[in-house]
Amino acid sequence: MNKAYRKAVIAGNWKMNKTPREAAALIEEMKPLVCNAGCDVVLCVPYVDIAAAVETAKGSNIKIGAENVHFKASGAYTGEVSAQMLVESGVEYVVIGHSERRTYFGETDQTVNLRTLAALEAGLTAIVCVGETLEQRELGYTETLLKYQTKMALTNVKPEQLKNVIIAYEPVWAIGTGVTATADQADEGNGYVRAAVAEAYGEAAAKALTVQYGGSMNAGNAAELLAKENVDGGLIGGASLKAPDFAAIVDAASK
Ligand code: PGA
């Protein structure tokens, strides 16, 4: 982290876990544990949990995010949710292009870009996910791929909108596997993302960009990962479902 230049943000990504009642209970448990955070604290929750999450988090320092957003404003898109619907529901952040959506739901670099533009246009902060598979890493494509995914996601994003962009570097092989990237690998991957933003928007913009690491970050390894210059926070899956674990990561980012 380098808090002199950019915000540290710890965001939970609950994925398809927790009913609305369970969401409220978990947030109640988290509130006192993270109330003195020295970083931004976000929980990205399933659509149906948003109302309960926003209500429970009210008056606290926890901000609520969604896990996806459609890129059209409205229309015949059965099952989809627009950016404006999220904003009106009290949502401030949205995860875009998570590798699970890329793998299981046909997400492409182009749709990631469209969702990012729609989210930013509506005033949401976009947490855009990029990351290489193990095969791509072993073939030596990590830098090329991360830069490509980053630039594709940000196509037509205006320089002044970048303040509402967070990029999460999540190596696909580290997500939900218990295999964490080493701190050096995380720093390097995040550095490639920052370099891509520097190429597209200049050094100052790149320096100000929050780049998270995600992939089996937990209470035990967070401090080491967050100690790296380019690791400005985390996108936390499994460990965000347990209040003490999530709070420990927030503590590590508050130093
Ligand atoms: P994990 O998930 O922390 O469970 O590996 C991270 C993510 O998918 O964002």
Structure description:
The protein is α/β, with parallel strands linked by helices and 255 residues long. Helix content is 42%, strand content 15%. The chain has 11 helices and 8 strands. The protein has helices spanning 20-34, 50-57, 83-88, 99-104, 109-121, 134-138, 142-153, 183-201, 203-208, 222-226, 243-253, and strands at 9-13, 40-44, 62-66, 93-96, 125-130, 165-169, 210-214, 233-236. The chain has an 8-stranded parallel β-barrel with strand order 1-2-3-4-5-6-7-8, surrounded by 5 helices. α1 (20-34) runs parallel beside α2, α1 (20-34) packs parallel to α11 (243-253) and α7 crosses α8. The protein is globular, with a radius of gyration of 17 Å. It starts with 8 loop residues before the first strand and ends with a helix. The mean pLDDT is 97. Bound molecules: 2-phosphoglycolic acid.
Quick recap of the structure?
With 255 residues, this protein is α/β, with parallel strands linked by helices.
Residue-averaged pLDDT, rounded? 97
Order of helices and strands: EHEHEHEHHEHHEHHEHEH
SS-based class: alpha/beta
What hetero molecules are bound to the protein chains? 2-phosphoglycolic acid
**Low-confidence spans:** none
The Rg value, from CA coordinates, equals 17 Å
N-to-C terminal Cα separation, in Å? 10 Å
Q: Percent of residues in beta strands?
A: 15-25%
Based on Cα principal axes, name the global outline.
globular
How many separate helices?
Answer: 11
The total beta strand count reads: 8
Q: Major β-sheet, in short?
A: 8 strands, parallel, barrel
* Widest sheet, order of strands: 1-2-3-4-5-6-7-8
EC number: 5.3.1.1
Pathway: Carbohydrate biosynthesis; gluconeogenesis; Carbohydrate degradation; glycolysis; D-glyceraldehyde 3-phosphate from glycerone phosphate: step 1/1
Enzyme class: isomerase
Subcellular location: Cytoplasm
